[in-house]
Model the fold of this input.
Amino acid sequence: MSQPRKLHIKSYGCQMNVYDAQRMVDTLAAEGFIETPAADDADLVILNTCHIREKASEKVYSELGRLRVLRDEAARGGRTMNIVVAGCVAQAEGQEIIRRAPVVDVVVGPQSYHHLPQLLAQAKSHGRALETEFPVEDKFAFLPPPSRQAIRSRGISSFVTVQEGCDKFCSFCVVPYTRGAEVSRPVAKIADDVRRLADNGVHEITLIGQNVNAYHGEGPDGRPWPLGRLLRHLARIPGIVRLRYSTSHPRDVDDSLIEAHRDLPELMPFVHVPVQSGSDRILGAMNRKHSADDYRRVIERLRKARQDIAFSSDFIVGFPGETGEDFCATLALVEQIGYAGAYSFKYSPRPGPPAAEMREMVSAEEMDERLVRLQELIDSQQSAFNRAMIGTTVDVLFERPARNPGQIVGRTAWLQPAHVFASPDIIGQVWPVTIERLERYSLLGTLAPGPVQAQPFSTTSLPTTVGA
Ligand code: SAH
Ligand code: SF4
Ligand code: F3S
Done:
């Protein structure tokens, strides 16, 4: 039998890339590759890239510089190392990558991973291969499902892609250009994937998509189903105790989703709904097609549907033309909503989306200052949210042994890591935990004695205005 070849894959960017990386591993497993944690001894290295901000994108070229050294070393030892650039930079820059980095054998866009084996064969015979056209077929229909062994090695929580691409065209964002138009997978296919994962020990599913609540896949009745209906359907699959979804757009929070939050205990009360800015003028320039008040109303409706719901968001500071007043509107919105966490970024001009043409750039110092102020506010809210857990009893889904001997670690409904001293036998189960302490972002607690029902934690007890 021939030796298995070793594959190393490094992913940048969003959850979609993490999921895609696993599917590439599954595809190449069928070709005799096994995954290796280091690039040094790999026969094939895949960089699964992200184009969202300039920094993310430029990382690819420095990484390729390092890989060139490894590849030369391998060659001196009589070994061939192939290098693939996949993901959103591959899609956006295609030929340019081959020009700038001759070390690359294959450039493959995110919609064409099912062609990887052919592209590798083509590179072997012709020296190089490139595929960045959007194929007409859906790659998911062709990618092999993960093996039982692969699922088990990935733990009790898994992503499942339900939709890909985006039709929103926010003026700063490359995603509609790198991932293409929005496509939803049929309900039956998603349910098959989830059943397979559940049969192999997965208990938590996060449905992912660039714009996940724009989901409108074909239901068993032949009609398009909204995300809320899909969630309702999946919640019935035995073994699935927790459902999440990410990333949603405020404009696509519809009645079905609100009702799913109201009715499904499996649907976790922690939602990532990016707003980007609190200024209507900037939201307009960003082409978000909603106002700050529209967003407030969405949050209110979700809060009414489920009292323990908490939110996270993404923010961009220093969008072209953002004045001090616009930025203050963002701070005011954050203060009013009270987040359990959020990501914030400095605006980064990208080739393709129209904001790149806007000339009223905010100065680098101003951007830095705004980012610090926003992050301080968000941090203080996150700490307040975490501190409010102390003394309460909350459900924790245990995931793995912790680094500290004797401890195991799991996550609360709000994705906070929670550590307890307990037997690893309960990994994969949900147990009520009384939270005693907070160590940085981790909760420490003890298993609540007996089969107690975890008390619902109410976010309404949190201050809505937390120190600026
Ligand atoms: N689909 C999601 C987000 C996708 S990108 C949504 O609609 O919100 C993840 C985050 O990166 C965005 O929410 C935005 O905050 C940030 N981002 C996207 N393009 C950016 C840019 N050009 N500069 C800075 N941040 C950006
Ligand atoms: Fe990008 Fe906007 Fe689409 Fe999100 S909704 S992926 S920010 S274009
Ligand atoms: Fe990055 Fe592409 Fe995701 S640009 S954020 S990897 S969709």
